[in-house]
Write a structure and sequence with these properties.
The protein is α+β, with helices and mostly antiparallel strands. It is built from five helices and 17 strands. The longest helix is centred in the last third of the chain and has 19 residues.
């Protein structure tokens, strides 16, 4: 466990869709979050105010004294995109497990049958994974997968191109084929709020070119996918993510997961992880 490292990162604690005040929990710390549609405040049980920034449709805060910079998603500034916070999904699993699941391609035909995958087309084609040292991020590129319905706006089954990016231990960004604009990428992200080492809240977010689907339809589409993942995540053992490669046997399809775990261990980002067999 390395909470000392984790406290200096930014985390989402609310979205900007619903104004109001609510209690929540972050890194084993009770918080009060207030959002009035224009400004936000975050305080802990002792009354200490924590820094706030509004980015990507969410209220973010940091509990540490030396906040790291929050990562950039340049597509959020592109005109014409619809920026869609997709609510939240509370999951009884390690926050790192939630991110790793988002990066996993192989489970599509089995967990998201008829949407993101379907049997017998279960092959994960070779792809490239790299830790980009210049930005300290994990990237998976040249990913291809057959999908029955890649997005709410997709008209039918097609082969989808993907790129995955991990810019933060508890956030991941997916760039994928945009059905209405083949020259562009759709952007889907998962921002994870670590409630504790074994419980988290996933905040999905999208930046899409889609002039046909309603906001409710797009949110429902993403919520359906994340709810399907929840039952799998809540039954994974061990609950915390193992970082020692000897603790779980990877396959060729797990290249992104392998790089993610290696990157976490190198950074000392071990909150929600197991660093050795127990």
């Amino acid at each position: 466990m390395s909470r000392d490292h984790a406290v200096n990162d930014w985390y989402p604690v609310a979205d900007t869709v619903r104004p109001g005040a609510r209690a929540t929990r972050l890194l084993d710390t009770d918080l009060q979050v207030a959002w009035d549609g224009a400004a936000a405040a975050v305080t802990d049980a002792a009354g200490t105010a924590h820094p706030v920034q509004i980015r990507y449709g969410h209220v973010w805060t940091c509990l540490g004294a030396a906040p790291r910079a929050l990562f950039e998603i340049s597509e959020a500034e592109e005109p014409g995109r619809r920026l869609v916070p997709c609510g939240r999904v509370r999951v009884r699993c390690s926050p790192l497990r939630a991110v790793e699941n988002f990066l996993d391609i192989a489970h599509f035909p089995f967990v998201h049958k008829g949407i993101l995958g379907a049997e017998p087309q279960t092959e994960v084609f070779p792809y490239a994974v790299k830790i980009r040292e210049e930005v300290d991020e994990v990237w998976a590129t040249q990913v291809r997968f057959h999908q029955p319905q890649a997005a709410k706006s997709a008209g039918g089954a097609t082969e989808i191109r993907y790129e995955y990016r991990v810019p933060h231990p508890m956030a991941a960004v997916l760039y994928k084929t945009c059905p209405p604009r083949p020259e562009a990428w759709d952007v889907i992200a998962i921002f994870v709020q670590p409630v504790s080492e074994t419980e988290c809240i996933a905040w999905p977010w999208m930046a899409l070119y889609d002039d046909e689907s309603s906001h409710a339809e797009m949110v429902q589409f993403q919520q359906e996918i994340f709810v399907q993942d929840r039952s799998i995540l809540e039954n994974q053992l061990p609950v915390r993510l193992p970082l020692d490669p000897r603790m779980e046997i990877p396959t060729r399809a797990d290249l992104t997961s392998i790089a993610y775990r290696r990157w976490l261990k190198r950074r000392g980002a071990t909150y929600g992880a197991m660093t050795e067999a127990q």
